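A common beginner's mistake is to predict each chain separately and then try to dock the pieces by hand. The better habit, illustrated here, is to supply every component at once so that their relative placement is modeled jointly.
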Amino acid sequence: MSGPIINDTPTKTTEKKITIDPITRLEGHGKIEIFLNDEGNVANAYLQVPELRGFERFCIGRHVQELPVLTNRLCGVCPAAHHIASTKALDAVFDAKPTETAKKLRELFYMGQYTHSHIAHFYALAAPDFVLGPSAPSNKRNVLGVVDAVGVDIGAEVIKHRSYGQKVQEIVGGRATHPCFGLPGGVSKQISEEERAQMEEMAKSCVEFGKFTIKLLHDVVLANQDYMGLVLNQDAYYLETYYMGMVDSDNKTNFYDGDIRVVDQEGKEVVKYKPSEYLDVIAEHVEPWTYMKMPFLKQVGWTGFTAGPSSGIYRVGPLGRINVCEGYTTPLAQAEYEALAKTVKDLGVTGPVHHTLAFHWARVIELQYATERMLELASDKSITSDDIRGEVNEPTEGVGICEAPRGTLIHHYASDKDGLCTKINMIVATTNNYAAINTSVIQAAKALIKNGEVSPGLLNKVEMAFRCYDPCNSCGTHALNGSPALEVNVRRADGSKLDTLRNF
Amino acid sequence: MADKIKIAQYWGAGCGGCDVALLDIDAKILDVHAIAEVVFWPIGFDGKLSEIEAMPDKSITVSFYNGAIRNSENEHVAKVLREKSAVMIAFGSCACFGGTPGLANVTNKKEVFQTVYKDTASTDNPDFVTPQTQLKVPEGELDLPEFYDSVKTLDEVVDVDYFMPGCPPTVNLIALAVDAVAKHVTEGADLPPKGAVIASDKTLCDECDRERVETGRRIEKIYQSYEIKADPKKCLLDQGIICIGPATRAGCGSMCPKANMPCRGCMGPTKAVMDHGGSMLSALSSLLNITDSESKLSEEQIMELMMQVKDPLGTFYAFTLPKSLLKRTVTEKRKRKG
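With all components supplied together, the output reads:
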């Protein structure tokens, strides 16, 4: 294969506005508008999210038990994350403690999700920029172009292991996309020994694939001075923000359960909160030029699209998690975490990694962790137990949080005594990152576009500033509830009324 | 070999699950790669809308459109793709019936904005700023698509050639469609008749292997899934859990019942049925012996039983509200209210 194409030749534009529509290789909709001043330099840029569906409105009036299968339709890439956050919210709503087996099954299922999602992002969405190069022809800059470049054998391995991630979710969760097994206090389905053994085999293979992916990142990106130049370009891809992510009691990363830790630009802990306390920490700002809201740290405040300690902007997802945690519970992920720490230390960085493109490195470390954790859980013979349902009490109100592949995911529901949802609020992974993503796009556009000179490759490098976050605007644009509006009379053939159905 | 065919996959108001479903065909992706060039698929490919708009009419062989029509951009891209494509497929239940986002048709834009941008617990928006379709910013003007009052299905805005239901469509159904297109391209085989639904004509119950009570079926009490430990071998309806399999098209492999959870109807109604929820209510009434003149239940008992379904809308119309007859009921009621 020929080497990646890093740069192309810019041409002079006299336009005052450059539009990238749609932005691509992300989940969901988005467009970027870049405004140039008279000198042809970037005056400002906006990453607009043009969609809204409104789950927070139409989920009101629904039975809360249905929310894990309704809200997973927020996102078909990480439905498992919504299903888990929602099921945990139901644990809280019904004051139900899941059994040990149920917890393990949920987490095993969830590691399948991470395996699928992180492989899909790294190989299908991000790799074209690294394997083919940011300035490769746009009709080649995709996963099929990557397959052509690296060969069908590696392509087949990628396909196989992403598929294993899906298969684990299907076995445990009933379905890979839009799973259905979550119940308050447990799960609906016991697994068999045969299924467990099958998952153990798949997990072993995934651990090896995790190692391969780390090696690939080292060979293709970290060993390439041109790419390291991009990664370390502080004018284009560097923000000193707060970070947020879930940790266990030892401050090790955990995707399924724990407290949520926030650190500052120096890496110092600002707050560690429990799911039920999220409203003390986060508020959401609204801008009139986009449908997606922008969360910020309440105690710091909203000051617009800037970084630094006085701005409440924080980052979540792989970069957020790697900056809030003190390591991993599994050996291979821990070793690579230490390798990253050493690399940045050698570069003179102390405290958190603020280099935006380091998201990719953090993501492959997490892929390794997810596969190792999947193997631990799938090797545990006790997960075939029939003890999968805990006791359930009368529904009230509750919050569930997990770490979605793209960051901290919060579901908050209130229920009446019949189990009908009266209030719902969700802050999803990508929404948490939105203000930072927009700030990164402004920064990259300003650094890369000068004197009106633009090229497809340069614009793609602007897109790389958001792509590394792996944004999921499908998730980010949920929000609607069901105001009473429907009453149906069910009549017999003779016209006499049989029943009245209503959603209120 | 001959020139590759051109395909496009786009999302309206969807979740990306339909896009992932195309990845889930696994090694078959390489078959697709052999015969097709992807000209537009924003989740994974860098084609931009302006490039599609510049293409000659009908030059895209087949477009898969997933997601419902929630705003003016969804509609605009649907129209562009229709014009540029020889074959237009409504891919997935949101494009076919409105899907989960279609539940928003019990409300409207004003109420959605009120909830999302004002009432939600974490929203900090004292001036009630809302997204604007046209906006002056210091550097120039920005625009956003218009959020419609209601959710539409794809065939309400463009002519649709084929329908592929499912949330998302299953790998088997996609493989069928890919094979049909491939055979058409490589061997000149006929495509299915226009308007065909690429799925089974049976009901979910036909492919569900749970044991049903054959005679004298009767529900005494309706349960939510969390209230009982359902027997994994017996029909869920027989156990009092509302499973809408009897009214739902087969083709998913009864995945939810296999996971000991009821069918919520994501494949949509069967062939002859216009209204999914109505069809299920009819199935339910026969199950309750309500239509039987010898019914052993009194009207009060029937009423009591039915009132146990706390959320009929979410239970019977979780995926098909924009296509149901109820839509008109709601609209007309609103109109009357003025």
